[in-house]
């Protein structure tokens, strides 16, 4: 393969005369191109002391390369790369410009999506739509075809660039994420197979069998169904590659004890299905990583994500380093894993977004499922006008038909934490005051006043100051019950009516006096017998008239005397009037 056949373009203009070229393609990071040029390629006839000034102008420019296919293996697939120059190194030799070189380092185009931490969330979306949204925001050419096709209730990008977010999302759901030529791949890897053979384009090849522990039972709590979801990953695969089968079986023999692994998922009714799907991907990734291969070839068609076929056995490429020397020779060094499955070898079921506690605002508190949940909006969600799904609320006590049913109001500021630090599993810890939402005025320097107050003005106030202890229950209209601990008094006040109702007996007992005072009438009514008893005197006093009336009879009796006195007394019996006594005096 001749040097003159390798083409390098900077901003569409061909640059000739490179000394060495190396392109590293790795599914775990951006592709990196490094090209060495004699410095005078860019500096021209500039004095040596000025060398490097023009070379620096290449920073930020677009660069592309094209290495032709290997005619030896009759494979005409070219090696291509497009990227952005992100680093320029000026290397000068002592007393001679023969060693003066310019090294241009470029990253693949997806570097523009790795522009610093960002925050976002996606609700009820599929992986494909999330990936498309992220790639289109940067104008990246992308091929998106994830194997996981279910709708995901809540996905969070937390303190991650778009590139880091998609990279982690791929690990979490077992999807490949890599860059090749000018395209971002998210989902199923390439179906292209490159056949390599010794004595043609394969120089060196090494295989490692590394048995691993893969007997796990993944467990997750599902509060929506009030059950613990489990998925036992113990099982067997029937791989086409016999080496993979041997390594897998050896792993079972070496690591015999099953381990329980707890996973924190954003709860939904299909959490069990999600757990089974992701644990299967996790298991497959472990199995694939039991086979590691590396080698050297002359075929530039070898690239990450592709399958290489060596002696009828397939291996999936994970890293390839291409080199073109100044003499025109091309080689590549490759690394790979078992090619029997399409799951990403980087899969990690615990690759969730991590977060510490955050401040949020309540956006909804009417949980139609009556689980006492709320929706909140983090500060970083406000710009997009989005919020969380329904999340749980920590209360001092909760149980079946019981508990403290105090829920924050819409607009309240709350502290939100996350189960296991998973940003996709938030829950509200409690509410906090701030400048625009201060506590009521019932505070004191000695912290002697505690209160519970609702938005309707209903208040319970506890005063703990020595000698002034009291409990007050009051509403916004001033209706109140006051328990004055310091005086052992209880006062009940109503602006209108007070009604006391007892299903059986109603007893009032006072160690001293009982005073009943009405601004108008006092009425008492007994369905059967009405009895008033006094230990000493019994007085009935009326400012005008006093009337005692019974439908049958009235009896007045004194143990010694009975006296009826008035300036005029009328005794009238419509039928008969009887006056009896031992001695009857009529005057």
TrEMBL record:
It comes from the Bacteria. InterPro entries: Gp5/Vgr_OB, Vgr_OB-fold_dom_sf. Gene3D superfamilies: 2.30.110.50, 4.10.220.110, Baseplate protein-like domains (3.55.50.10), Gp5 N-terminal domain (2.40.50.230). Pfam families: Phage_base_V, Phage_GPD. Residues 359-433 form the Gp5/Type VI secretion system Vgr protein OB-fold domain. This is Gp5/Type VI secretion system Vgr protein OB-fold domain-containing protein.
């Amino acid at each position: 393969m001749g040097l003159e056949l390798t083409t390098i373009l900077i901003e569409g203009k061909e640059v000739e005369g490179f000394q060495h070229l190396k392109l590293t393609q790795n599914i775990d990071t951006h592709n990196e191109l490094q090209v060495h040029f004699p410095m005078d390629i860019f500096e021209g006839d500039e004095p040596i002391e000025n060398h490097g000034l023009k070379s620096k102008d290449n920073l930020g420019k677009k660069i592309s390369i094209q290495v032709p296919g290997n005619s030896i293996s009759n494979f005409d697939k070219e090696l291509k790369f497009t990227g952005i120059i992100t680093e320029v190194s000026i290397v000068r030799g002592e007393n001679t410009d023969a060693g003066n070189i310019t090294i241009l380092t470029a990253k693949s185009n997806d570097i523009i999506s790795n522009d610093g931490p960002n925050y976002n969330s996606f609700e009820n979306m599929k992986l494909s739509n999330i990936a498309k949204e992220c790639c289109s925001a940067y104008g990246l050419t992308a091929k998106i075809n994830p194997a996981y096709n279910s709708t995901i209730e809540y996905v969070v990008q937390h303190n991650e660039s778009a590139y880091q977010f998609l990279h982690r999302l791929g690990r979490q759901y077992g999807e490949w994420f890599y860059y090749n030529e000018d395209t971002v791949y998210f989902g199923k890897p390439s179906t292209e197979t490159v056949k390599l053979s010794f004595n043609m384009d394969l120089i060196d090849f090494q295989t490692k069998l590394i048995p691993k522990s893969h007997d796990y039972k993944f467990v997750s709590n599902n509060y929506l169904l009030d059950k613990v979801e489990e998925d036992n990953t113990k099982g067997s695969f029937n791989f086409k590659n016999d080496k993979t089968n041997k390594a897998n079986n050896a792993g079972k023999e070496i690591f015999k004890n099953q381990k329980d692994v707890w996973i924190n998922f954003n709860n939904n009714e299909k959490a069990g299905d999600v757990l089974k799907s992701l644990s299967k991907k996790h298991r497959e990734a472990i199995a694939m990583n039991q086979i590691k291969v590396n080698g050297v070839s002359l075929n530039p068609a070898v690239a990450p994500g592709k399958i290489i076929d060596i002696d009828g056995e397939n291996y999936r490429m994970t890293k390839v380093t291409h080199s073109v020397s100044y003499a025109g020779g091309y080689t590549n060094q490759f690394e790979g894993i078992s090619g029997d499955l399409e799951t990403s070898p980087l899969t990690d079921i615990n690759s969730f977004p991590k977060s510490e506690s955050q401040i949020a605002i309540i956006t909804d508190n009417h949980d139609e499922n009556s689980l006492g949940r709320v929706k909140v909006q983090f500060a970083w969600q406000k710009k997009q006008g989005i919020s969380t799904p329904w999340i749980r609320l920590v209360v001092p006590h909760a149980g079946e038909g019981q508990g403290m049913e105090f829920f924050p109001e819409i607009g309240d500021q709350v502290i939100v934490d996350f189960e296991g630090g998973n940003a996709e599993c938030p829950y509200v810890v409690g509410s906090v005051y701030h400048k625009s939402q201060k506590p009521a005025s019932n505070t004191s320097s000695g912290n002697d006043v505690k209160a519970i107050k609702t938005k309707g003005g209903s208040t319970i106030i506890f005063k703990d100051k020595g000698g002034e202890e009291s409990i007050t229950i009051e509403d916004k209209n001033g209706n109140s019950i006051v328990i004055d601990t310091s005086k052992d008094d209880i006062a009940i006040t109503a602006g209108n009516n007070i009604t006391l109702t007892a299903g059986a007996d109603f007893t009032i007992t006072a160690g001293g006096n009982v005073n009943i005072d009405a601004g108008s009438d006092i009425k008492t009514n007994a369905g059967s017998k009405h009895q008033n008893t006094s230990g000493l005197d019994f007085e009935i006093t009326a400012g005008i008239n006093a009337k005692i009336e019974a439908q049958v009879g009235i009896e007045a009796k004194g143990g010694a005397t009975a006296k009826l006195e008035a300036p005029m007394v009328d005794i009238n019996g419509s039928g008969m009037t009887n006056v009896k006594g031992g001695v009857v005096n009529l005057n």
